[in-house]
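re the bet — no i am not wrong, look at it urself. input seq straight from the record:
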Amino acid sequence: MAEVLERLKAGIRRFQTEVYPEQAGMYRKVESEPQRPQALIVTCADSRIDPELITQSAPGELFVTRNIGNLVPGYGEMLGGVSAVVEYAVKALQVRHVVICGHSDCGAMKGLLDPEGLKSMPTVENWLKNAHAALSVACAIQGQDATRDELMKLVTEQNVLLQMQHLRTHPAVAGAMAREDLTISGWVYDIGQGEVRICEDGGRKFEPVRIGESEVA
């Protein structure tokens, strides 16, 4: 166990000697000013997901919250950390966009497909009730002949769409969207392929972000 901590400390030393010196001015600047992130990203706690790396964002540009399955409970159902993050991001930080980001090979989605595997983790099992409707939709669309891989892909997408629906029930989000101060989108990140597919608000189809597409300054 000690070797894990030592590996983490070695990483800190590399940061202090190789990364920080080259960007010291930027770090001092972002510390001296109030944070002004443009977007909130709600993504999975999976250790393979790095929102800042995927979007090539610098410190201070993203407000990020992570949990098992990138879930956003509907307002009033499980008021807690996720609800507080959403409210703070929208009301206090006035982010302009919220992303729900799912991903390939998600353990939470595997848990939905194999509920028996969750029996030893009652807290996780209860938390994933916030995604049950996504499983029902995926099964209804695919039918009985779907392969596990097909069902896994679809339930991942449907879960992102479901959490977008839940997000809209939060008063801070509903108000900001009504004023046209806030937009939302759903993403699915393919870890092995490095691909991000996005469903913009109002749609239900996930389209890949393609290399060579025009960039917005």
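see?? The first strand starts at residue 39 and ends at 44. told u. also The radius of gyration is 19 Å. so pay up
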